[in-house]
Amino acid sequence: MRIESAIRNAKSTLLVYGINMLLQFCIRLTFLYYLTIEYVGLNGLFDNILSVLSLTELGIGPAIVCTLYGPLARNDIKAVQSIMKVFKRAYIIIGVLIIAIGSSISPWLYSFIKSPPNIPDLTWFYLFFVIDTGISYFYSYNRNLLIADQKQYIINNVRGLVQVVGGLLQVISLVLFQSFWSYILIRIGMTLTENIIVTRRTQRIYPYITESGIEPLATEIKGQIIGNVKALVLHKIGGIAVFSSANIILSKFVGLTAVGFFSNYYLLINAVMRLSDQVFNSLKASVGNLNALADNDRKLDVFHQLFFITGTLAYIISLNLYFFINPFIELWLGKAYVLSNMIVLLMAINFYLTYMRKSALVFIDSMGLFIHNKFMPICEATLIISSGIFLVQRYEIIGILLAMILTTLCMPFIVEPYILFKHGLRGSLVTYYVTYLKHLILLIAVGSLIQYGLMQFDLNNDVLTLAIRLIVINIICIGIWCAVWWRNTYFMSFREKIVKKLL
To answer: Which of 24, 59, 41, 16 is CA-nearest to residue 277?
Structure first.
């Protein structure tokens, strides 16, 4: 049941995010054609500022979701009712706080922008972004029950439909009205529509959550939630500092145009990362169920399977990002928006290091181990902000990427595996790093080989040449990968499963 649910969630996630990715590319192209690069930078800046405001959530969502795994596995309806009642109250308060705090900082909005552009209604645009973020919390607590119960595919189906219709409306409105207002208002409508539909679906599946006379939360569960929140608030700070500070620092010290260029690349990179996040997040409920019912040997085996998959995906995606993101940007937006190969290399390195964390994070989150590394995010936040401000003034975009890489290597690369194997899984940390090193050596060797081969040819960036290059490079990547891992236990297991399905 766990495997079937995980596969179903992953399939729906891949489909929905694939469609959404295509729509985002169309929207971004429409932005640049009918508005300006400053509007793209503005959109990225507002999203990052509001990510910082989401600190108000304090990690309450993940903390409460962790407490739902056990009651759902035991079909303890009363416990689920009590937990969801707390969830509802907490998220309504969070939504109100985000709108209040976000609105209160609007007078200082221009201090985040070096050489503010002449964009009418800029402050009003920001306030409507704040409203969109705040109202998303008024209903979204319901989706966490579906996620915890391994039914994320329901959310994905609703999100996919809303994003397709809303995305098309945004493109049409930008073409017809050439106004940022139409984009924002449709965005708010999409947020409301998705959350209302998901809420109604959740209440139909779990009608008992709307009953009256729900018992107060048990002291044991309340203590567990409070302990988790205390740890997760620090994780929230670190996560936001690492993943949301780049655009803010670039806007402040370089300008909105740099944010626009940077955002074009990270629209692609984050699309891939978010797609992967959704797939890995869809596994958390299954891992949480596994943790509640299985012994250590079984959990360790599943982790190593997942780490092998993570290493394989990181290898293939990172190589494709490095070799194809610039040609894609040139075809998609034009040569004027292409950044240097050094910047792209650093983006690929940062992507690889971030992606390789995913398997450990799935287990850490599902097992509630975040309390053991609660101070790591504070160190992350301090390092990324200080090094980012120092380096960006000297090397601009390259500087912010170096700061991101440095932060990952100094903190999560060391701390997260240590916490997992010390407090969660009884296994060898040395085995983990040896496997990691094997994946990394393979990546460097194959990347260097392909780069040397490409240097021998003067290739055009037309669609046909790019398609042929894409096919050839991926055949080489996958062929070498198969040859290296052919006798690996986990690869042999996947090979047998694929053969059985084909037969």
So the answer is: 16
